[in-house]
Amino acid sequence: MPRFDLPLQALRAYLPEVDEPTDFDGFWAATLRESRAAGATAEAAGASGNAVVRTPVPSPLALFDVEDVRFPGFAGDPVRAWLVLPRGLPRPLPAVVEFVGYGRGRGLAHERLHWPSAGYAQLIVDTRGQGSQYGTGGATPDPHGSGPAAPGFLTRGIDAPETYYYRRVFTDAVRAIDAVRTFPEIDPAAVAVVGNSQGGAIAIAAAGLSDGLVAVLPSAPILSDLRRVIGLTGEEPYAEIVRYLAVHRGAEDRIFETLSYFDGVSFAKRATAPALFSTGHMDTIAPPSGVYAAKNHWGAPAELVDYPWNHHEGGESVHWERQAEWLAEVLAYA
């Protein structure tokens, strides 16, 4: 794959002005207020409703405790997650809330033990309606319908921001942070969010919508600088929107108006926690200019690690070592 995006010096200076609706903050404040109210109603209903429920899970893991967590997300809908707690460490623990990539679910609790092995509590959050394209599955339905859409998730409910799929997903992410902060084993002032690809986009949105996070670690995030990156390559998932617009001729302005409520750049401007990004310069799924757009607009100190010869896999395990070292340093000074 030849290089296709801006050269490194241009990326470092890239600061695009993205479409941002005048009611962006009001839209998200109302969305979160309504969902928190629905969650409070669920809590009042007890275990028979969609309150936060933690269920210990038998596991062959000798060094970790595993729990199946259910918490109220968008509109109070039940969302599932795994909570993995390292044994034998002083509590309360710092926590990492992890969001997963496009098409996969939370999988099995023993699949990603690197953060708990480093001494963190880890909440691995399901993505509603996903979990059947690869990996080992998910357990959270999306009970809300949508109008006509291309196969995939990026065009579901895209006719209006109120019905758009990622309104529900991003709200679920904020509610996951709300939930984990109530757990007595976890220090509510030491919660970080992390994710790769779609998970990175969700982490960015959560950072822009949540106060008091200690750190944000998005790797190869999608969904930033959408006017540029949609159509820049032919790769999924942006190709879903291209196919949709190819059929719905003349809908471009309306569709991009909806997407303006979900562009990672707008969330990045509102972030208050330090961030560590990464990008592969050969990445045609999350083009580096989109990643740099979010990083360069970040509302707090931010670093970005370049992998000049990598595609969407980025730094993989090499980058996780960098993340772990960086997060430990952040926590030491928090």
TrEMBL record:
Pfam families: AXE1. InterPro entries: AB_hydrolase_fold (IPR029058), AXE1_dom (IPR008391), CE7 (IPR039069). Coiled coil: none annotated. The active site is at residues 197, 283, 312. GO terms for molecular function: carboxylic ester hydrolase activity. Substrate binds at residue 102. One of its GO terms (biological process) is polysaccharide metabolic process. Residues 1-328 form the Acetyl xylan esterase domain. This is Acetylxylan esterase. The lineage of its organism: Bacteria, Bacillati, Actinomycetota, Actinomycetes, Micrococcales.
